[in-house]
Amino acid sequence: MVFNYKIEILTPTVILSGDKIKSFEIIKDGNKAFVVDFDRLIRNEENFMNFVINYPEILGDRNNFLNTLKRLNINYKNYIKNEIKGYIKGNTEVSEFVKTAGRPYIPGSSLKGAIRTFLIKGTQFQGEYEKKFQYLLESKKDNKKDIKKLVKNIDLKVFGKAVMSPFKLLKVSDSNYLEYNDLKIANIQVYHLLKNKTVLDLYAEYLDSGKVLNGTIKIDDFEKYGSMDFILRHYYKDPRLIFNDFVKNINLGVKRYIEKEKEIVTEQGIEDLKRFYNMLEDKLNNLNENQFLLQLGFSTGFYSKTIFVKHLEVKQVKFLKSILGKRARNYKPEFFPLTKRVVKKDGVMQPLGWIMVTLTKK
Q1: Segment 63-82, tens digit of pLDDT
Q2: Residue limits of the CRISPR type III-associated protein domain (predicted)?
Q3: Residue 306: which H helix or E strand, with range?
């Protein structure tokens, strides 16, 4: 089966490339800040390029950089690549969206990862994961190495090795490329749920609501992969069940996830997010049979990346903290999650990364 997919961005979506726009590339001017297009600046201003070759240290300091532009009589406004709205602190860096040849896109691997997670949340396999996790928790093993190995084996026990996993049948292409001008820069606020306020500001390039991207999804025939007989004999009766009612089960996983998110934000009295999830729930209930919702990308939170569909108990968070080490140093077992990352649009909080996918047979 081959489908064309159409992604519609519902809330600001960030897929990080790992690169950053350095602070000296950002010029503050009054209440605004601008990202300078260095490639174009160097290409068009030979004097500047020669100056940088002789004095590369000017690129390490915003004031030196600005003074150099003034000395060379270069107006930075002719080389603005993007605008950052709102207040931005000094020495701030901006995380870059993934691009190819300067054009943003959504990698197939990011989309496939999100499909895999929400599909598992919506099927019997979610229960299998939780049973095995709970068994490990109650086994009270002391050796952390043994526990880490056993946790990794949960996925192996459910779906087998990657080369034999049924998800090998699922092939998702990269989306088409958009233009650089389709990106904006978001102020991502780390909102502390106990303090009821923003405790940290992050900045990242993002695709805004309303952007549309396209690509293809293919589910290969099971018969092409003879090695999967191994899974059939050793694991579950038929792992292909994961692809039955593909769209319906993804949306069931999303439904369970939204219910849990609503529980958290209602408990904390975060009205903006409660209204958002009520709206998203209405949208989910009114989708066509070929449409599903997903949350993907940066700053979407622990629960969006894992198979858990219920609020974790204190003892479960303690167990995760013990095996994840530094990665879980900020986990508070008695209050998890402690923070949520949001963006504000017109003064209203929104979670990041929600998209709607429409499939049509190719």
Answers
A1: 888 888 989 999 998 999 88
A2: 90-300
A3: none
